[in-house]
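Chapter review: from sequence to fold.
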Amino acid sequence: MASLVSTWYGGILGVSEYSYRYGLSNWLVFGLPYYLAAFLFAIFLAKKARQSEALTIPDRLAEAYGDRTAAVGAMVIFAMTVPTAYVLMLGVMAEQLFGWPYWVGVVLGTLLSGVYLYMGGFRSVIRTDILQFVLMFSGLRC
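The token string follows.
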């Protein structure tokens, strides 16, 4: 539960902040592209995706176009899902807390995150989510 709460509320708070600062443009920036893509997927791709034995998009690309295309597809998906905003946030935090240059915080944050994920796997993600959960709710006022 702590993992889900920290993940979803973190996103909700970020979207809420964006709405507060920029108003209805939030619907155009975050909402419209997402729902348009979901609609197009449901109409044109969902049936084919359910019929395939592939578990991931790169698996499907490998079936249809070969391993090279699957590797490129995996890199594109990775680039699209890298938590860039969080890595940039680490740079800002390092700059504010320690006076380090922004880029140093970004590089160190990325390296440290990669190391703890590599060493601890999914369990390390759960641990950081629990820490975020505790910090979130300890910061709320009653």
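Two observations follow directly from the output. The longest helix spans residues 102-138. The mean pLDDT is 84.
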